[in-house]
Design brief:
The protein is built from two helices and six strands, in the order βββββααβ. The model has no long low-confidence stretch (mean pLDDT 92). It has one domain. The longest helix has 13 residues. Helix content is 15%, strand content 38%. By secondary structure, it is mostly beta strands. It starts with a strand and ends in a 5-residue tail after the last strand. Strands 1-2-3-4-5-6 form a six-stranded antiparallel sheet, covered by helices on one side. It binds zinc ion (ZN) (2 copies). One zinc ion binds next to helix 2. One zinc ion binds next to loops.
Length: 127
């Protein structure tokens, strides 16, 4: 899967380099936190893919948003993701999953709480 880079506008240079699937929460049935990097301009960011299934109509709502964050924060999140031994397992109970999958008492995901983002962009897949 390749995406359009918001920095250099290359239509397909942005790739997902690491991802971790997180436990579902009140807002999403599927939630994946990703580190994305552009092979053309070295731009790097965080991205979140969320999907909500609707049992009644059997359709899916999804959103895929990238967040520009500080390199320091990106590196620390990357480090946390890499600590997980089972990144595609949303039920994994390792420290990385505990840390990144935190929800508030209402069941809303708090994963990006405390991470300072200076802008978001839509993740556009190459057509
Ligand atoms: Zn780029
Ligand atoms: Zn884990």
């Amino acid at each position: 899967m390749s995406f359009k880079c918001p920095q250099c506008s290359d239509p397909s240079a942005l790739e997902i380099v690491f991802s971790i699937q997180l436990p579902k929460n009140k807002c999403a049935d599927d939630i994946t936190l990703q580190v994305v990097e552009c092979g053309a301009c070295q731009f790097a960011a965080l991205a979140v893919y969320e999907e909500k299934r609707r049992s009644i109509s059997d359709t899916r709502d999804w959103k895929h948003v990238g967040y520009r964050i500080k390199t320091k924060d990106l590196l620390s999140i990357k480090g946390i993701i890499l600590e997980c031994p089972d990144r595609l397992n949303p039920d994994c109970r390792c420290l990385a999953h505990m840390h990144l999958g935190t929800c508030n008492p209402h069941g809303e995901w708090l994963g990006l709480e405390g991470v300072e983002s200076y802008g978001s962009f839509a993740m556009r897949m190459r057509a």
